[in-house]
């Protein structure tokens, strides 16, 4: 805080509450493009740079960072949905090369050994 501000507050009979910064219009520049972005996302287009270029061609004047924040929200929502699926349990433990699985059939063990041979 600047010295002049301190002296102004000290000279004041009361301390005024800090006023919140006035926000711009509540409608985002991205809002008209969200249905298109969501449709592209659901169609498998997940590259933010490409999505940004596509909506720029349609007239979007906002920033790349705004599109990035939106696609990040889409990714988080997608992960949340995947994690809440019925029947989704713990991931199976990873196998280390050279260690046979704890419980497997002889054909599975042969497959692992053949894979190890191609890796070594």
Query: What order do the SSEs take from the amino end to the carboxyl end, as H and E?
Result: HHHHH
Roughly what is the average pLDDT, rounded to an integer? 79
* Beta-strand fraction estimate: under 5%
CA gyration radius, whole angstroms? 28 Å
Are there runs of 5+ residues with pLDDT below 50, and where? none
Structure characteristics:
mainly alpha, 5 helices, 52% helix, elongated
Could you characterize what this model shows?
The structure is a single chain. This protein has 120 residues and is mainly α. Helix content is 52%, strand content 0%. The protein is built from five helices and no strands. It has helices at 3-11, 34-42, 48-57, 64-83, 106-119. Helix 3 (48-57) crosses helix 4. The longest helix has 20 residues, at 64-83. The protein is elongated. The model has no long low-confidence stretch (mean pLDDT 79).
Short characterization:
Helices cover 52% and strands 0% of the residues. By secondary structure, it is mostly helical.
Question: What is the strand and helix layout of this fold?
Answer:
Elements: H1 3-11, H2 34-42, H3 48-57, H4 64-83, H5 106-119
Helix pairs in contact: 3-4
């Amino acid at each position: 805080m600047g010295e002049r501000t301190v002296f102004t507050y000290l000279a004041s009979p009361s301390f005024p509450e800090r006023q919140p910064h006035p926000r711009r219009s509540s409608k985002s520049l991205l809002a008209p493009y969200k249905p298109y972005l969501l449709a592209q996302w659901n169609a498998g287009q997940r590259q933010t740079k490409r999505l940004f270029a596509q909506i720029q061609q349609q007239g979007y004047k906002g920033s790349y960072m705004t599109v990035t924040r939106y696609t990040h929200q889409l990714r988080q929502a997608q992960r949340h949905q995947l994690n809440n699926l019925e029947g989704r349990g713990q991931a199976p433990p990873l196998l280390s090369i050279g260690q046979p699985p704890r419980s497997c059939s002889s054909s599975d063990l042969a497959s692992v050994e053949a894979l190890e041979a191609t890796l070594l």
